[in-house]
Amino acid sequence: MFGLFRKDPAKKLQNDYESILSEAMIAQRNGDIRTYSELSEKAEAIRLKIAAIQAESGKS
């Protein structure tokens, strides 16, 4: 009952993930491979956090 208004942390991370992937795509198209690589690495770290949160919520 009290969890009704609780924000879903995976949802915010998913939005961040998609935003960073979008920035990475733009960097790649502009030929900035270094920035693309850095942003892709950040996106992968966020994806792993999302997977961990989803696995944890699946256990409960």
Shape: elongated
* pLDDT < 50 stretches: none
Mean pLDDT: 90
Count, helices: 2
Class from helix and strand fractions: mainly alpha
The domain tally reads: 1
Nearest-angstrom radius of gyration? 15 Å
Query: Cα distance, first to last residue?
Result: 16 Å
Helix content: over 70%
Which percent band covers the strand fraction? under 5%
Number of E strands: 0
Sheet with the most strands, sense and barrel status? none
Q: Name the helix and strand elements from N-terminus to C-terminus, one letter apiece.
A: HH
What would you say this structure looks like, in words?
With 60 residues, the protein is mostly helical. The protein has one domain. The chain has 2 helices and no strands. It is elongated. It starts with 8 loop residues before the first helix and ends with a helix. 5% of the residues are buried.
Summarize the structure.
With 60 residues, the chain is an all-alpha fold. Helix content is 80%, strand content 0%.
Describe how the helices and strands are arranged:
Blueprint: H1 9-29, H2 33-59
Which tags fit this structure?
mainly alpha; 60 residues; elongated
